[in-house]
Specification:
The chain is α+β, with helices and mostly antiparallel strands and 197 residues long. It is 41% helix and 19% strand. It has a 5-stranded mixed beta sheet, with helices on both faces.
């Protein structure tokens, strides 16, 4: 996957990982072996986070988003399928006043995080963040990629890293979503000087 390509990948079709970095290819294999997409296909799974963007570090996990209006049923299914995997945990919690189920486990060299809520996968914040981050990487190329990667290596989370590079104000997670409204040309004119410093 080339981030300079004008057309975004179909994020719901994992085959783009097969053409990516060695770690993206390993992620594809781990996902296929785990069957988290095939077992849970009715819940519209999509991989989000840094691995699809190729800005992951050694500790980056596989963030997989799901949509369901029955969190209890999904959590029971996930438990029955993956409870035997290393460091399995599952928890119900509230994020931004919405109920979610988060499952973690280790498999085939990766930490998996299954994140489910009653919001369409493509409308969840993590997916929208990834789309905006892809867009910014496509607009600004390697200078932004390298700055973000350096910050991530220092332990900064992805969205705060992008916000820091572009000097976005306020909550970095919400600031990235606000960029959905801004045309590419305006983004380039507003932020390109920051990346030259």
């Amino acid at each position: 996957m080339k981030l300079t390509n004008e057309n975004s990948p179909d994020w719901f079709d994992l085959t783009y990982l097969q053409k990516g970095t060695p770690r993206q290819q390993k992620a594809y294999q781990a996902i296929q072996l785990s069957k988290v997409f095939s077992h849970l296909k009715p819940y519209s799974p999509v991989l989000a986070g840094t691995i699809p963007l190729g800005i992951d570090t050694e500790t980056s996990d596989l963030d997989i988003l799901y949509c369901t209006n029955n969190l209890n049923a999904l959590s029971k299914q996930v438990y029955s399928l993956y409870q035997h995997y290393d460091e399995f945990s599952i928890r119900h919690q509230s994020i931004r006043e919405q109920q979610v189920v988060v499952t973690n486990f280790y498999f085939s060299g990766f930490e998996f995080e299954i994140f489910a809520q009653n919001t369409a996968s493509h409308s969840q914040h993590a997916y929208r963040h990834m789309v905006q981050e892809y867009r910014l990487l496509r607009l600004f190329g390697n200078p932004l990629r390298e700055l973000v990667y350096q910050l991530k290596r220092q332990g900064v989370k992805t969205e705060p890293a992008f916000a820091q590079c572009l000097q976005l104000k306020g909550d970095p997670y919400l600031a990235l979503l606000e960029m959905e409204k801004i045309p590419n040309k305006e983004i380039m004119n507003t932020y390109k000087e920051l990346l030259k410093q």
